[in-house]
Every structure is written in structure tokens, then in C-alpha cells.
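G., before I forget:
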Amino acid sequence: MDYPLIFALIIAFGVFMYVFMDGFDLGVGILFPITGQTEEERDTMMNSVAPVWDGNETWLVLGGAALFGAFPLAYATILPALYLPLLIMLIALIFRGVAFEFRFKTVRAKHIWSIAFFGGSLVCTFTQGMVLGAYISGFLIEARGFVGGAFDWFGVFPMFTGLAVVAGYAALGCGWLIMKTEGDLQDRCFRLMPGLVAAVLIAIVAVSIWTPFVEPRIAERWFSLPNLFLLSPVPVAVALCAVFLFRALRQRRDVQPFVLTLALFALSFIGLGISLWPVVVPPDITIWDAAAPDESLSFLLVGVAILIPVILTYTAYTYYVFRGKVKAGEGYH
Amino acid sequence: MADFFGDAVLMARVQFAFTIAFHILFPAFTIGLAWWLVVLDALWIRTGRDVYSLLHRRWTGIFAVSFGMGVVSGIVMSYQFGTNWSRFSDIAGPIIGPLLSYEVLTAFFLEAGFLGIMLFGRGRVPPWVHMTATVLVAVGTLISAFWILAANSWMHTPQGFTIVEGRFHPADWWAVVFNPSFPYRLTHMVLATFLTTAFAVGAAGAFALLRRPGDEAGKMMVSMAMWMALFTAPAQVLAGDLHGLNTFEHQPAKIAAMEGHFETRKGAPLILFGIPDTDAQVTRYSVEVPLLGSLILTHEWEGEVRGLDAFPRDEWPPVAVVFFSFRIMVALGMLMMAVALLAVFLRPQGRLYRNRAFLRLLVACGPTGFLAILAGWITTEVGRQPWLIQGLMRTTDGASPVSTGQVATSLVVFIVVYTAVFGTGAYYVLRLMGRPIEAEPPPTQPPQGRRPMRPLSAADQPFDTPEGT
């Protein structure tokens, strides 16, 4: 059995679950001061994600732990290379996570935790985008160790991907709020959404053009025959999604904007996968180079195979229980 | 100071020690607490007495906040192996990685499956379902401890591996998990969490009795805490002794540092106190009991005890740190045992609940379990130095190739943020503990049962009020 392949798929799945689930709740945080104009609206926004955010975030922990367990070399090279952005991301996550709890439990300091929620969400999202950009650009690695500098991750391309992910998560959050809220708050989200979607599409196009310039090997993958034809469904699907998305917004559909924004994320993720496969640490460490021995992976697979379906079932159940619109004043205080 | 900031490895160690010390306080508390909640649940089902139900609700809130803090501080831990200890992660990853992944999966499963029912299911599911969920959460906390301590113990007493191209490959997972120090460490740690919880609960009960003499919930807490301490404190002394003998067999240099023995000799004394002088290789001002050291470690009056002189100088742990932290742990353990015994004499005619001096002592002893755990971990972890994996990999070889500036920055950031965030959390827990139990709000029933099911929201009382009480 090709264990490294199985684990690559499992971790890719976990990362995608994380991006799409924490994506919208981080997006709600980014939109906190923009669409939430009264304290009550901000409470409603927070309540719309309160039941699910920590379940969303556990995928990040699982991703980190599974990467350590399955691809120790990737874990041991990517994390030191991204030392500072990961530090910033974790700190932002801590503030944002406890803000959920502390904001509702205090009266005097409520505004402080509102700022922590917004700031934490924004900073966390931006650093995740920068991490993505730095990851695509690749790392300086010799003899199984990162040999670059502390600020190698910094650059124009990562800054751009940082902004792109902020726009993307904000669009996801906006779509989520359209689905989960009503009244003034929802109206405001409907007005905001086309601009955010446009920004996301521009970002997708820009990154798609930019990436091959940053990495010649990615250009080779996409623009050589017959790959060009085999891979063409991905950009075509992106275009179709965009058309449907704008139409859904014109028709003021509740659910479609969120689902179609998710589809844009999924397609971008697939595109990224095509660009990088089978490399796990760009530019050139593959999943087979980085994998732990089969004795480790087969041991770990037992637990993963049992628990991932359980976790998915429970997650689906939670979303089912909390389905429908969040009404003002409902939820917990 | 210049030396300190010039040494990236030392700072990475301090950072790990700081973040894990903060982290361990929360799970250490929740392991013991989960089992106490099981007992309260069972007593409530059997007797139907209100006090058990009130206590259960109150301490479920405290459990929830501690659990939430444990999860948040745990996120940092799962990344720190990579950021600060990347060479170790690469070389030992095939063994440590899966063990830690199992811990995360277990915690995930625990939260996913049963925590929601335990925290929010009271009144919505039959009592036996609630009881079962509570038991499973309690078992889950132990399973988490199982994996973490298996990984940690393997680093102290590695076995079941082969070395392929300079990296550790698992050869026998059974041998890896059940390595020689694991059963002792697990027992010692689990008993420590029970003692910690007992003294935290006892302090809360004593506080209530000092404020409101005769408080029923306060009596119940003090009584249950002291029974718990009476059984676990002596068991812990025994478990600690066995753990020590295991360490003597596998990590003799650590024992030599703990005991302050520089010189190998037959019929070694037990040094009760002293000041180890590493340069002069002698423990000064020592108060000794002749021959007792040999008797404890070898079970013979004239048994040979290896001192630090039996090991190369560059394989010595920092002697003073280990020597003192060990004594702090033992002293706190003895204090807890003494308090538990004192409680036995005060129990007749309920003097236990009226003797204000004893109640003040109990309040003061609230943090002893936590402090003993930290002292114990410092003893065992510093005592392993200079090894990261005993005898096989040095700590200095495990660190990441990152600059001192990065490690220094992150260390400062963690200290500031942890103090602010977890300080707030700890303050909240203390507020919850200090409130009269009658103030416990009845379980609320939000519309359509659509209440968010998250750990911290199980404690639904505000920190403060607009008036600022």
C-alpha cells in the first residue's frame, strides 16, 4: 500500500476542511466592524459562528499533528522556515478564540474583546495568506534542514496572497452571513458581496498568472501539451462559478452565494494541488521523500481511519442542529 | 544575561518549559476534576440530594473553562516541536509524531463525542446517558495522558526502535509505548492530578466555610477532598518511590543529581538538605541520614550508589536545579500528606468544618498540587539533560536552525500573551470557585435547544457587572 499517498490525501483533505470552515468564521471576524453596525448585530454575527468555530479550528491542530506524524521532514523544514508568521498566526488565533468566550462574559471590557475578535481574525487571515505565498515560492533547504533567513517568507508575492486570502475569507464570511442572517445585516452583506467576489476573482486570476512566473516548474506543468487541455476544466469551472455567483446575488438567493464561494475555494485548492503535486515541501521534496516509514504510517492509519469518520459525522450533526437563520437576541449570553 | 540571550538552544528550552508548564496546569486539573464529576453525578443519581447537583453544575463550569484553556494552550504545543525543535522532529518524528497524533485524535474524539453531552446534556438526556458521557470524558482525559506520557517516557527510556540512516524507525510499537519508565510515570502523574484536584476543591470548600460557617456545599467539598487526599497522598509516596527506583536503574545520573551525590560510594547517606556546589563537586552544609540513601535506592545498607563522578562531566544535568526542585516536590507532597492526616483527627464531631486555622491552612494549600506537579516535571526534565533522548540524542542537537532573535522574540511574545489570556482565564476560574454555591443559576433552556455546545460556554456567569462588583 502506498501509505505516503494516502496520508497526503488525508492531510490535503484536512487542510481544505480547515480553510473552508475556519475561512468563513475568520471572514465573519474580518467583517465584524464593517457589516456589524450595532452591538446587537455584532452579537448576531458572533452567534452565527459561535457553535462551530472551535470545531473548525481543531482541524488546524489535527493538520499540524498529522503532518508531524506522517511527514516529519515537511514538519521539520516548513515550520522553522515560517517561524515568525506562524507565531503571529497562533497568537492571533488565541486572542480570537478566547474573545468568543470572554466577550459574552464581560460587560465593562466587551469592546476590548470585540477588537481582539476583529484584529485576531484579520491578522490570522493575512498571515495564513502570506504563509501560502511563501509556501508556493518554496524554501531554501539543505541536508534536511531549512537554511534560509528569518524573513525569507516576506516578499511582494506573499503580501499579495495575504491580501487575496483576506478578500477570500471575507467573501466566505459574507456569504455565510447572507445565509444565516436577515434584515439590515443581510442587506448590508448583499451590497458588500459583489465587490468581495470581484476582488476574489481578480486575486485568483492574478495568482494564476503570477505563480508560473514565480515557479517555472509550475508553468511547465500547466502550459505543456497535453496538460493544457486536460487541466482546462479547472479555469472553465471557475468562470462558470463566477457567472452563477453574480446571478445568485442579483436574485438575492440565501444559500447559493456561500456555496458557490466555497466552490471557488475548492477549485483554487485543486489548482494549487495540480501545480504542486507530488511536492510537499517546495521546490523539490516529494511526499515520498518526506514521509515517515511505513511502520509509522500504518500504525497511525488505524486511528485516523476510525476517528476521521466519527469527527465528520459529529461535525455534520452540529451544523444540522444549528441550521437556519440566527435571530437577533437568540443564542447564548 | 548576555549569555542567556546569546544562546538560542537555551531560550528554546525556556520557551518549551514556559508554554508546557502553562499548558499542563489545565489538563492536570481537568483529569482529576473529570473523575470527581463522575463521583458527584453518581451520588446525585443515588441520593437525589440537591447539594450534589449544585456542586456538579458549579464544577462542570470550572471544568469547562479549564478544558477550553487547555485546548487553546495545546494548539501552540502542536506547532512548537516543528518551529523550535525541527532536528528532533525530523530524526525522532517517525516515533514521536504518531504518538502525539494519537493524542490529538483522542482529544478530538473526546470533544466531538461526549463533551457536549456532559456539559450541556443535563436535563435533556436521561441521567444514565449523562453519567455515561461523563465517564467517557473522564476516560478520554486519561487516554490523552496515556499518549503524551508514552511519548515523553520514550524520550527518557527509549526502546523498540531501529536506527535507519540516522533516524529512529519504530520496530515494535508495543515496546515503544510500554517503555520501561512509562507505567511509573503514568501512575505518578495521574495520582498527582487527583491530589491537585483534591486540594483545589478542598481550598474552595474551606473558603466557603470561612465565609459562611456551616455551608453545606463547603462541608461536602472539604470532606470529599480530604478523603481523596488521605488515599492518594500515601499512594503517591509509594508511586514516587517506585518511579525513583526505575529512574535509578535507567537514568542514574539524574538520581545522583536529585540526591546531591557527587561521589560514588557504598552505604550512601540520604541528604535531606544542602547546597550542591557543582564546581567543587560537593554538597555543602548537608544534613544527612547515614546509609539511608543506599537503603532506599538499593534496599541494602551497604549498596553501591553511583554518584556524578561515575559519569563524564559533559553528561551531568544541572545539579542544583534538579536537587532543589526535587526537594520542593517532596516537601509539598509531605505537606499534603500531613494535611490529609490532620483532617482525620479533626473529622470527629465535625471540627474539620469549624477549625478556622485548619480551614485557612486548606485555602493556603489550594495551589500545592499544581506547584508539586511543576516541581516534579522540572526535576525529571532538567534531570534528563544534556539528553533529549536519553543516551542517544543531545538537546543541543535537536534544536531548529533558527536565529536567536526569532526564539527570543517568540519567547517574549508568549510570556506576555499567556499572562494576559490565561491570567484572565485563571481569574475567571477563581471567581467561579469563590461564589456561593446557591448563586449557581439553574440550567437554562434556550429556544429549541439550540445552545452552542462549546466548553467555555458551559460556564455562563459574567466576570463582572456594569456596576463593577
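The longest helix of chain A spans residues 183-214. The CA atoms of residues 11 and 63 of chain A lie 6 Å apart.

More on Monday.
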